[in-house]
Amino acid sequence: MNVDKNNKNFDELIEKAIGRDRPKFDFDKWKQRYEKEIDIFKSQTTGGKAPLSAEPPNIWRIIMNSRITKLATAAVLILAVVLGVTLIDRSGTPAYAVDQTIAANQTIRTLHVRVTDNENGIENNEYTEAWIKCDATGRMTNLRVNIYEGLVDEGGEGQYHAVWNNGVDKIWKPSENKLFIYRVNNTEARMNDFAKKYDPKFMQHKLYDASQNKEQFNVTIDDSEHEGFIYVEVLDRDNQSRLELLVDPETKLVTQLDEYDLTKQGGELKIRVEFLAYNQPIDPELFEFNDIPEDTLVIDKAHTLVGIKKEAMSDHEVAVEVVRQCLEATIAHDYDKVSRLMEGEPGETIENFIEEELGTRLVRVVSMGQPRPFKTWQHILYVPCEIEVENGAGTRWTVNIITMARSIDYQSGDRWVMIDEQLQVDGPDHIVNEILGSFARGIIVPDVCVGDYLLGMSKDDVLARRGEPKSFGYEGEGFAPNNLPNTYYIEYHDLWFFMQDGSVTGILIKKPFYQFANGLKMGDSMENIIQTFGHDFVVIIESESDPSFILTYKDRGLSFWLNKENNAINGIEVYSSGFLKNLYRQVSIGGTWQDSCQQVVQDGEVKHQKTTFNYLGDTVKIERIDYQDNNCSIKSSSLVFTGTFTVPRMSTTPGARDIDYTVKSITVTFHTMDVVNKANRMKYLGYSDWQVNVTRDITGAPGISSKGDKLYEIFRIENSNKLYIGSNEAIGSSSRPTSLRRFYAMRQ
Amino acid sequence: MPERSEINLIEAAAGGDIESFGELCRRYYAVMAAIAYTVLGDHQLAEDAAQESFARALVRIKSLNDRAKFVPWLAAICRNVAKDMIAAMAKQNSTKNISQVDKAENPDENYRVIRQAIEQLPETAKELVVLRYYDGLSYEQISSVLGISKASINGRLTRAKRKMAAYLRKNSIPENRL
């Protein structure tokens, strides 16, 4: 079985093998069954806090407040382990006590550590390496972090190097050849969210509470020193994690820590921390960037004010304002201002973006949209904007773009900047649909127009209105403007014009700037479409692996692309209805088809046959008549099959489509006395009372399919008027044919 | 009436609202039953395990630190409950796996063979297949339970089905029987 090709069948089989009706949950019965647990639940209070144990070593708290969260996370893990073990494992009396590690930690003045996280790090050799230096009191004075993400190539892609020296952060991105300098004067506030989660005091409270619940932690210490280490394991059942520590028996310092995520099957390794060196001298040069290339662009956010002050504005207002100022400064070529508003990014950033994406220049800000929060980070806002752009020929039009703004916390005062990371015309569907949908300005009139663009426009009309397109193409092939075929697309970022015979025959809507008169637009659901246009549609599934399927109203000239996962519209196609009807006719099996008189050999007998196929809606009737003569004029028997059909997918047979029938009835009629006598003699299908021209329902008879049975067939339509079906002769075969008949039926 | 958000329900449940917990149970009953079915291979036992998981979760929900991980957390509890049940049954020699489900429950021979094919999959893949087909969970829902991306689910599911197909071929299951 080819899973990829017969996916749907296989899916159905698996479903039938293990699926079942959705089990119903009766909460009242459950409450009766678990009264004891409910009592415990009700009796639980928020609980008092236990006295805190000794303060953790300074170095860990300082690391946690650094901007390098991966390192902080690693530190927290260590802290969690030592505190957890200290709190919980009082009763044990092994030769090694975890208190010894805590005491040893107090002596740390330098540390070299490597952290590998779970995402792709372990497989792809992605990791973070850090060097930490503290003064005699344990206060961190210098930090160097090298982050290696993605494929580390010679250009330094995926590398970030950062140093922290007495309140100033410097981050060097070799791949961009940029050095960012920040003053870290409000680290506490910036790390507030992080600290809430990982603050050591908070953690101690939690661990103490947890320790009251004997079921939560299980600590195992193996100090037999096999393989040269003391091995400590902490199982945290509630948080579904397991920590493994290797402790040096001499120094009592941890040399490696692994955290396993038990919510992943088999306990997936989440993070590995390797403590490469304690208290070894570190070259002071490591904490400077004296050896970076001379042409590195220095973006100094420590000594230059960036962004704008929020003052009395709301978050939404200041976000809109900073973006608006940025766009206007771009129009005025005030690159210094753009750079300041964009945290030191090059002043040409927006200009270059518009040039690269649209092949145009920005001439005017038309309107600013309503900001929306970026995921759960409330301090970052999407700001949609409508801008007017102009191409080299002087043609102007408007475009919607998405920008982002955020508050910064590395400079005093509440300042906001525009950020470039998400500057886009194209974006994830949900963002584009949700945000840009609010700008929808053109009305879609089926069979007529999309906004101002009419079906029937010429190529020159399109180019005059829209300027230079992104490309001319068709089915993956690109064309030069002076050498266009009869059928092609003129492609813009928001609309594709489908050209045939020199005029626009269809318009494909790629962005939600257009909607139907009742408000139906991209992002809406299939139910919304059906409410608007009714049930006279056809569903087309191009392939099982395609994330979308198509809902076509051929009489209206409309096709909707829908996301299979959530049935939301992610594309709309508007055609002249005549075109779509004709196209549909070319590929649709709907209608009546008939063979010419064919000579076939069945069961060793030469026969002459004609078959008529009638497909109407989802019903099918196939009538096969055997004739006595080679002109197909004297009937001998008729076999009639009725049922329903679906066309689920492209077939594994090249050039064919699969078609699945569900049997409703199968009847047979014998038309001559000779045939009737023969049937009665042989007790055909168990009957010996066959009569001339009397039809008998043979559905479910021995060897004949029963009502509801599925039959599998293939077909191919050529030139919209020739129907080829599978080469299997017998109706009722449960396996799908793999080749087509050599003769065809003609559309009637 | 609009459906309450999951995080809202979890917060309320952790705050002591038993009815919110009940709503969470209703939402995830079928999912947990599917997870338990992977281990137990029996629909009724799987439902028992799901209910037992809810009981264990109820008494611990207040200590759940990361509310966003409620579903994976619940799923982990459910797996443990199911494994506990297997261990208990092993003492009584009454364990089954998916492929040993009573023929009366699903008499078709093809289906039994397919369940065997599922049984031979690695644990992760087996659970993924069951989640997808036991109750027809969407990739979105599976993603929230297993904490892996939809693209990853798609890839893993395809690989799992290829393995199943290979098993079926290896065990001489004629294609036309499938």
Describe the structure.
In chain A, helix 4 packs across helix 5. The two termini of chain A are 37 Å apart. Chain A is built from 18 helices and 41 strands. Helices cover 23% and strands 36% of the residues of chain A. In chain A, strand 16 and strand 17 form a beta hairpin. Chain A has four domains: 221 residues, outer membrane lipoprotein receptor (LolB), chain A, CATH 2.50.20; 121 residues, Nuclear Transport Factor 2, Chain: A (Roll), CATH 3.10.450; 138 residues, CAP (Pathogenesis-related Protein p14a), CATH 3.40.33.10; 157 residues, no CATH class. By secondary structure, chain B is an all-alpha fold. The radius of gyration of chain B is 18 Å and the shape is globular. The termini of chain B are far apart. Chains A and B meet through helix 1, helix 2, helix 3 and helix 10 of A and helix 2, helix 3, helix 4, helix 5 and helix 6 of B.
Domain count of chain A: 4
CATH topology tier name of the largest domain in chain A: outer membrane lipoprotein receptor (LolB), chain A
Question: What is the CATH C-level name of the largest domain in chain A?
Answer: Mainly Beta
Classification by helices and strands of chain A = alpha+beta
Q: How many beta-strand runs of chain A?
A: 41
Strand order of the largest sheet of chain A: 7-8-9-10-11-1-2-3-4-5-6-12
Total separate domains of chain B = 2
- Give me the CATH architecture of the largest domain in chain A, please: Clam
* Oligomer kind: heterodimer
Low-confidence region ranges of chain B: 98-107, 174-178
Question: What is the residue-mean pLDDT of chain A, rounded to a whole number?
Answer: 73
Instruction: Report the major sheet of chain A.
Output: 12 strands, mixed
Question: Hey, roughly how much beta strand do the residues of chain A contain?
Answer: 35-45%
Q: Terminal Cα separation of chain A, in Å?
A: 37 Å
**Number of distinct beta strands of chain B:** 0
Please identify, by name, the CATH architecture of the largest domain in chain B.
Orthogonal Bundle
